[in-house]
Amino acid sequence: MRRLAMVLVLGLMWLSADVAEARKQQELSYRFDQIWNAALRLVKVDLRMPITDRDQDGGYVLFDYISSGKRYPGSIELIAPNDGSRRKTTVVVQVQGMPSYVEQMILDKLEKKLLNEVGAPLEPLKPPPGPPPPVDGGVEEPMPVN
Where are the domains of the chain? Predict the structure, then answer.
Protein backbone atom coordinates (compact mmCIF):
# COMPACT_ATOMS: atom_id res chain seq x y z
CA MET A 1 0.00 0.00 0.00
CA ARG A 2 2.80 2.38 0.91
CA ARG A 3 4.65 1.69 -2.34
CA LEU A 4 1.48 2.22 -4.35
CA ALA A 5 0.99 5.61 -2.69
CA MET A 6 4.62 6.51 -3.39
CA VAL A 7 4.25 5.51 -7.05
CA LEU A 8 1.11 7.61 -7.35
CA VAL A 9 2.80 10.63 -5.75
CA LEU A 10 5.82 10.31 -8.06
CA GLY A 11 3.51 9.90 -11.04
CA LEU A 12 1.54 13.01 -10.15
CA MET A 13 4.76 14.96 -9.64
CA TRP A 14 5.94 13.83 -13.06
CA LEU A 15 2.64 14.66 -14.79
CA SER A 16 2.21 18.04 -13.12
CA ALA A 17 1.89 20.63 -15.88
CA ASP A 18 1.95 23.78 -13.77
CA VAL A 19 5.55 23.26 -12.66
CA ALA A 20 8.35 23.03 -15.19
CA GLU A 21 9.84 19.56 -15.16
CA ALA A 22 13.30 19.93 -13.82
CA ARG A 23 15.63 17.08 -13.12
CA LYS A 24 19.33 16.60 -13.19
CA GLN A 25 21.12 13.36 -13.69
CA GLN A 26 24.74 12.38 -13.49
CA GLU A 27 26.75 9.19 -13.64
CA LEU A 28 29.09 8.59 -10.72
CA SER A 29 31.87 6.00 -10.62
CA TYR A 30 31.02 4.72 -7.16
CA ARG A 31 29.22 1.58 -6.04
CA PHE A 32 25.46 1.78 -5.50
CA ASP A 33 25.77 1.19 -1.73
CA GLN A 34 28.38 3.94 -1.35
CA ILE A 35 26.16 6.46 -3.11
CA TRP A 36 23.07 5.31 -1.20
CA ASN A 37 24.70 5.85 2.20
CA ALA A 38 26.19 9.21 1.20
CA ALA A 39 22.85 10.41 -0.24
CA LEU A 40 21.00 9.59 2.99
CA ARG A 41 23.60 11.42 5.10
CA LEU A 42 23.64 14.36 2.69
CA VAL A 43 19.88 14.89 2.86
CA LYS A 44 19.37 14.18 6.57
CA VAL A 45 22.57 15.48 8.17
CA ASP A 46 24.19 17.98 5.81
CA LEU A 47 21.11 19.60 4.26
CA ARG A 48 18.89 18.94 7.32
CA MET A 49 15.92 18.06 5.15
CA PRO A 50 13.27 15.63 6.40
CA ILE A 51 13.24 12.25 4.64
CA THR A 52 9.65 11.28 3.87
CA ASP A 53 10.32 7.85 2.38
CA ARG A 54 13.20 5.68 1.27
CA ASP A 55 13.71 2.27 -0.26
CA GLN A 56 17.20 0.95 -0.87
CA ASP A 57 15.95 -1.94 -3.00
CA GLY A 58 13.93 0.49 -5.11
CA GLY A 59 16.84 2.93 -5.15
CA TYR A 60 15.05 6.10 -4.08
CA VAL A 61 14.97 8.67 -1.29
CA LEU A 62 12.04 11.08 -1.00
CA PHE A 63 12.53 14.25 1.02
CA ASP A 64 11.15 17.74 1.56
CA TYR A 65 13.41 20.50 0.30
CA ILE A 66 12.74 23.51 2.51
CA SER A 67 13.39 27.01 1.20
CA SER A 68 12.03 30.26 2.66
CA GLY A 69 9.69 28.28 4.91
CA LYS A 70 8.11 26.39 2.00
CA ARG A 71 8.39 22.65 1.40
CA TYR A 72 9.12 21.28 -2.05
CA PRO A 73 8.96 17.53 -2.74
CA GLY A 74 12.32 16.15 -3.77
CA SER A 75 13.76 12.81 -4.73
CA ILE A 76 17.08 11.14 -5.34
CA GLU A 77 16.97 8.03 -7.50
CA LEU A 78 19.89 5.65 -7.95
CA ILE A 79 20.07 3.42 -11.01
CA ALA A 80 22.69 0.71 -10.66
CA PRO A 81 24.30 -0.98 -13.64
CA ASN A 82 22.18 -4.05 -14.34
CA ASP A 83 25.06 -6.35 -15.17
CA GLY A 84 26.85 -6.24 -11.79
CA SER A 85 29.86 -4.45 -13.24
CA ARG A 86 31.64 -1.50 -11.71
CA ARG A 87 30.28 0.79 -14.39
CA LYS A 88 28.90 4.13 -13.34
CA THR A 89 25.78 4.43 -11.19
CA THR A 90 23.25 6.95 -12.50
CA VAL A 91 21.93 9.46 -9.95
CA VAL A 92 18.76 11.42 -10.75
CA VAL A 93 17.74 14.38 -8.54
CA GLN A 94 14.39 16.16 -8.76
CA VAL A 95 13.03 19.00 -6.64
CA GLN A 96 9.58 20.05 -7.84
CA GLY A 97 8.95 23.78 -8.03
CA MET A 98 12.60 24.79 -7.71
CA PRO A 99 15.03 25.89 -10.42
CA SER A 100 17.34 23.26 -11.86
CA TYR A 101 20.39 24.78 -10.18
CA VAL A 102 19.06 23.44 -6.85
CA GLU A 103 19.19 19.90 -8.22
CA GLN A 104 22.65 20.49 -9.65
CA MET A 105 23.77 21.82 -6.26
CA ILE A 106 22.57 18.61 -4.60
CA LEU A 107 24.43 16.49 -7.18
CA ASP A 108 27.59 18.56 -6.71
CA LYS A 109 27.40 18.21 -2.92
CA LEU A 110 26.84 14.45 -3.24
CA GLU A 111 29.84 14.04 -5.52
CA LYS A 112 32.03 16.12 -3.18
CA LYS A 113 30.79 14.12 -0.16
CA LEU A 114 31.69 10.85 -1.89
CA LEU A 115 35.13 12.15 -2.78
CA ASN A 116 35.79 13.32 0.80
CA GLU A 117 34.36 10.27 2.58
CA VAL A 118 35.02 7.37 0.20
CA GLY A 119 37.94 8.63 -1.83
CA ALA A 120 38.64 8.68 -5.53
CA PRO A 121 36.04 7.12 -7.83
CA LEU A 122 36.43 3.56 -9.01
CA GLU A 123 38.58 3.01 -12.04
CA PRO A 124 36.44 2.01 -15.00
CA LEU A 125 36.75 -1.59 -16.00
CA LYS A 126 38.87 -2.09 -19.08
CA PRO A 127 37.25 -4.07 -21.88
CA PRO A 128 38.63 -7.56 -22.33
CA PRO A 129 41.45 -7.70 -24.84
CA GLY A 130 40.46 -8.70 -28.34
CA PRO A 131 42.18 -11.37 -30.39
CA PRO A 132 45.82 -10.62 -31.17
CA PRO A 133 46.51 -9.20 -34.61
CA PRO A 134 47.77 -11.70 -37.20
CA VAL A 135 51.55 -12.09 -37.20
CA ASP A 136 51.90 -11.80 -40.96
CA GLY A 137 49.56 -8.84 -41.29
CA GLY A 138 46.61 -11.01 -42.24
CA VAL A 139 47.60 -11.50 -45.88
CA GLU A 140 47.68 -15.09 -47.08
CA GLU A 141 50.40 -16.12 -49.53
CA PRO A 142 49.23 -18.17 -52.50
CA MET A 143 50.35 -21.76 -52.39
CA PRO A 144 52.79 -22.77 -55.16
CA VAL A 145 51.32 -25.06 -57.81
CA ASN A 146 53.53 -28.00 -58.99
Answer: 20-116
